[in-house]
Amino acid sequence: MVVRHQAVSIFSEEELGKFIGVKSIGRDHIEIECGCKSVKYGDIVGDLKIFGVKFTPAQFAKHAGKRMATNNWKNQIWVTNTRGRKICLWKTCLMKYHRESFLRPQRGLIVHRDEFIPCSLCKKERRFHLRDKEQCWIYHDALTNPKWKCSDMPSGRVKCEDEKERKSRKECRGCPARGKCNGCTRCVCLGCSMCRFGDCNCRSCVEFFTNENS
Question: Is 127 strand, coil or helix?
Answer without folding.
Answer: strand
